[in-house]
Specification:
The protein is of the alpha/beta class and about 140 residues long. It has helices spanning about 10-20, 20-25, 35-45, 60-70, 90-95, 105-120, 125-135, and strands at about 1-5, 30, 50-55, 75-80, 100. Helices cover about 45% and strands about 20% of the residues. Residues about 90-95 and about 125-135 have low confidence and may be disordered.
C-alpha cells in the first residue's frame, strides 16, 4: 500500500510520517508540499491513502479532494487541520472527507485509525510490523 502526505510544511510532513509509523505500515510513503505536486504523484502512482492538510498554499484543498475522487482508484482521504483551525461548520461534509483529525490533539486517534485501516486492507502488514518490532 502507498500513502501520500500533503502539507505545506516539510517539518510537519516528516513529523507525521515518523509519529504515525507510516514507513512501517506502508510499502511507500510519498510527500508533497503543493496541490500540483500531489496531482503529479497521483497521476503516476496508485495511491491508496492521502493524508491531507486542510490549508494548502498554492490551491484549494477542495480541488485536490475532487481530483483524488476523479481517479480510477479512489484513495481514502484523511483530512488534518492545523492547530487552531476551526473544524466545525460542516467541513467534513464540504470536503467529502471520511475522516478529519486535528494535528494538535488527535494524532493518537489518527495513528490507531491508520493501523486499523492498514490491517484490514492488507493483512500482511501485521507480519511486517511484527518483524520491525523484533529487529
Amino acid at each position: 500500500m502507498r500513502i501520500l502526505v500533503t502539507d505545506n510544511s516539510e517539518r510537519v510532513r516528516k513529523t507525521l510520517i515518523k509519529y504515525l509509523d507510516l514507513e512501517i505500515y506502508f510499502d511507500a510513503v510519498f510527500e508533497s508540499q503543493t496541490v500540483d505536486e500531489a496531482k503529479r504523484i497521483m497521476q503516476n502512482i496508485k495511491i491508496e491513502v492521502v493524508l491531507l492538510n486542510l490549508q494548502l498554499e498554492d490551491q484549494s484543498t477542495l480541488e485536490l479532494m475532487n481530483f483524488s475522487q476523479s481517479q480510477a482508484h479512489k484513495p481514502l482521504v484523511i483530512l488534518c487541520s492545523t492547530y487552531g483551525t476551526p473544524i466545525g461548520g460542516g467541513i467534513k461534509e464540504k470536503f467529502m472527507a471520511r475522516r478529519l483529525y486535528d494535528e494538535s490533539s488527535a494524532l493518537l486517534e489518527l495513528k490507531k485509525f491508520i493501523r486499523s485501516f492498514v490491517k484490514n486492507e492488507n493483512p500482511d502488514s501485521s507480519k511486517k510490523l511484527l518483524k520491525q518490532q523484533i529487529n
